[in-house]
Every structure is written in structure tokens, then in C-alpha cells.
Amino acid sequence: MSTEPQQALPDRRTMLRGLGGAFATLLAPGVTLYAFGANDAQAQASPKVRWALLIDLGKCPAGCDLCVTACREENGWQGNGRAETDAQWIRKVRLRDARTGQDREVPVMCQHCDKPACVDVCPTGASFKRPDGIVLVDKHICIGCRFCMMACPYKARSFVHEPVTDQKPWAPRGKGTVEGCTLCVHRLDAGRPPACVETCAAKGGGAMLFGDLNDPGSEIAKAVARHAPAQIRSDLGLEPAVRYRNL
User: What topology does CATH give the domain 12-245?
Assistant: First the structure.
């Protein structure tokens, strides 16, 4: 038996992270996928802030998809016409109350959970939560395993199956990676609201209220305290930041 010291083997997560970096260069030739959190504004995200979204379904008109269109145009994702592979950063889901027969159209996106299941299962650390609660995907180290998609109870993430073109510099995309709603983090870091919220206020029913849930003086904190809105699958204990009135 050899008595020479053995070199320590890298752990699985470290090894996969390295592979993810290699794969990222192959995903979309000619495109550099940057990591969210790489700029100064994002690096300074404060744990004192808890960004949240309150959606009043009573103000969400049936058939309106302005929030979906705004998200798609802002972030550059496109549906390909095939439901099984369409990007779904935000989608409208129709719910029907079996007791009353009442229908509701519900905007559903990444819920930016306080305890995100997608982060827990990611083998490389590509899925991560910023100090201010926004859940993102680092495309440099995403290896496309799709564990996060399986773990998410909201079906809020999509896998990029085809090569992508005409990307937005603030929303990098690449074949073979996973993506989802970022709450327009590039806008937040510049002091602007998410595109869906801005568009809903200007052209829709004004159903979306966005702000800092940790600030008791903010409109969203007051509204949440006043109306006790619902969370989708609150029984899972994930503490989503997206709340709903009249659900």
C-alpha cells in the first residue's frame, strides 16, 4: 500500500461548479452570460429590505395579459409556440372555485420565497437568494440539471431548449440553462419598479403593488397588514414574497 499523501479530491459541488463554467461558454456562442449580482448595486443589496409584490385579483381584468407582454419585452424572452418548451417568466393561470363556480385569472411568476426550494436543491449554487430576498440564477454555473424546476411548487422556472438571439444585456439567456422572473432586478437596482408593475399601473387595472415589506411605512406593508392577503401554497412554509388579494 502506498504511503504517499493523496491529493484531496474536490467535493461534488465544487466539481460541478467548474463544469458549469465550462458549459456556459458553449451555451450561446458569441454571447457572454454574466452572473447576476456582479455589479456594485446588486452587491450592495441590503438584508434590511424585503422586496415583495401584492396582486389584487379584483383589479386584474379577465383576458388582460399586459404584465406578461411587459415582462417579455423588457427581458427579451419569447414563446416558441410549443407549450412544453415555452419560456414562462410570468403567466396567467385560470382558477375556478368549485364551490361558487367563480373564475379568477392569476398572474404567477417566481414567488421569490424566503426559503426557496430551488436554492436548496441546486448542486452548483447557481440558484441563489440575494440579501434583499430576490431569487436568481447565475448562468455561469447553471449546468441545466433542472432540479430547481422539479423542486419549485409554482412551476415558475423554464429551461432554454433552443439557441437564443437578440438578448437584453441585463437579462442574459443561454441554451441549456434555467431561467425565471427576476423581479426586473436591473430596474430595482436603478430605482425603478418591475416592468409588469409599471405597465399594470399605466395601462391595466392597477392590480400590482410593489415595495419593501420590511418598511412599515411602505404602501405594501400597510396593505398586507390591513388585508392579510393570501400566499399560494402557504402550507409549504416557503414564505413567498408574492401575495394575492381576492384569491
Answer: Alpha-Beta Plaits (3.30.70)
